[in-house]
Write a structure and sequence with these properties.
Blueprint: H1 2-64, H2 70-95, H3 99-127, H4 148-158
């Protein structure tokens, strides 16, 4: 009888340990995703910051400066390159994530990016001629950061 009780207690202990091991394995797999998610989030944050800096440089060139200098043009080009690079890096990393998880957000991000590119073309046309500029040909739309709205949507869907 004592051996039977000991055997049953041993089996119960093994079963409990097995359940904890399974839970620990699941948590470990979830934890492995965190650095990847943080890395993508950092890239998107850098892209949002770079888009805002680009927008500030364009605003300065169009509204504040009397004429657009070569320094203004090179700053705008540099900001565009930085924002495009960081967004491309984030998009590339997001492409490696399960499509079902990020497909709607990725589509929204690409759509916002296409709108931003169209607004860039309008801006280029406004700043292209040397000398005084007119902003009347520019779209009346605000120029939202293509990353910010998508990040807000992602945060709302996770909550």
């Amino acid at each position: 009888m004592l051996q039977t009780a000991t055997g049953v207690m041993t089996l119960v202990l093994v079963a409990i340990c097995a359940m904890y091991a399974v839970q620990a394995r699941q948590r470990e797999q979830e934890a492995r995703r965190i650095p990847f998610i943080v890395d993508i989030s950092n890239d998107l944050s850098v892209a949002a910051q770079n888009f805002r800096l680009e927008r500030g440089a364009v605003t300065r060139a169009l509204i504040i400066a009397a004429t657009i200098s070569d320094a203004d043009r090179s700053e705008i080009a540099m900001r565009r390159a930085e924002s495009d690079e960081s967004l491309e890096m984030a998009l590339k990393k997001l492409g490696n994530v399960s499509r079902a998880e990020v497909s709607p957000l990725l589509d929204e991000l690409r759509s916002s990016r296409n709108l931003f590119i169209a607004l860039r073309r309008e801006t280029d046309a406004a700043i292209a001629p040397p000398g005084p500029r007119s902003t009347t040909g520019l779209s009346a739309q605000s120029t939202p950061c293509p990353v910010s709205s998508t990040m807000k949507s992602a945060t709302r869907t996770r909550s």
